[in-house]
Amino acid sequence: MEKYRILPHTADGKFEAFGGTLEEAFANAALALASLMWDWSRIAPKVEQLVRVEGSDKEQLLVKFLGEIVYLVETRQFLLGQVRKLEIRPHFEGLSLDAVLAGETLGSGHEIYGDVKAVTYHELAIEEGGPGEGSRVQVVVDM
């Protein structure tokens, strides 16, 4: 199964990500986000970052999760290479997401070719299929 697809957009970045489960689609959305800025497949899993976000619904949870990756890039120069673990669970007032991200700290050997400024709700879509159908998310980011 294809992990993600970059879609045409007039001014910003747009992608859709796929997975057999919603968690896998969210993890692949993280890789799609990274692919707009660097080649995540060339990033070694040397450093782990733990991420926990809460949201009132799946859409808010996805925006907050991807926003955390943008935050980690900006504040810790963390380059995502893989999503080692991602769990979505019901929470007191909605949903929570716990993820273990692996990657490297930005260094002279890394090529950065894009800059995502923010994750938006514009054209945001989440389709969660039944058993065997898979899930899909679509995201637009400000670049």
What does it look like?
The protein is an alpha+beta fold and 143 residues long. It has one domain (4-142): Archease, Possible Chaperone, Chain: A, domain 1 (3-Layer(bab) Sandwich), CATH 3.55.10.10. The chain is 23% helix and 42% strand. The chain has helices at 22-35, 58-76, and strands at residues 4-7, 13-19, 47-55, 78-91, 94-105, 118-119, 125-128, 135-142. Strands 1, 2, 6, 7 and 8 form a five-stranded antiparallel sheet that branches. Strands 3-5-4 form a three-stranded antiparallel sheet, with helices on one face. A hairpin with a 2-residue loop joins β4 and β5. α1 (22-35) runs parallel beside α2. It is globular, with a radius of gyration of 14 Å. The mean pLDDT is 95.
Write the layout of secondary structure elements.
Layout: E1 4-7, E2 13-19, H1 22-35, E3 47-55, H2 58-76, E4 78-91, E5 94-105, E6 118-119, E7 125-128, E8 135-142
Antiparallel strand pairs: 1-2, 2-8, 3-5, 4-5, 6-8, 7-8
Helix pairs in contact: 1-2
